[in-house]
Amino acid sequence: MSSAILSVVAGERVPDPVRTTPSTNPANTADVVGTIGVAGPDVFVQAARAAREAQAGWAALPAPQRGQVIANVGRLMTANKDRLAALVTREIGKPLAEALGEVQEIIDTCDFFIGEGRRLYGQTVPSEMPDKQLFTFRRPVGAVAVISAGNFPVAVPSWYIVPALLCGNTVVWKPAEYSAVVSDAFYQIFAHSGVPAGVFNLVYADGPDTFAGLEQALAAGLIDKVGFTGSSEVGSRIGELCGRHLQTPCLELGGKNPMVITEDADLDLAVEGALFSGFGTAGQRCTSLGTVIVQESVHDEFVRRFSAAVASAAMGDPTQDVLFGPLLDEKFAAGFEKSLGWIAAHHTVIGATGRVSADSPRDGFVGDPAAGLFYHPVIVDGVRSDDELFLNETFGPVVGITSYTTLDEAIALGNKSGYGLSSSIYTTDPNKAFRFAQGISAGMVSVNNSTSGAEAHLPFGGNGKSGNGSRQSGIWVLDQFTRWQSLNWDYSGKLQKAQMDTVTVEADYNFLLP
Question: Is 301 a catalytic residue?
Answer without folding.
Answer: no
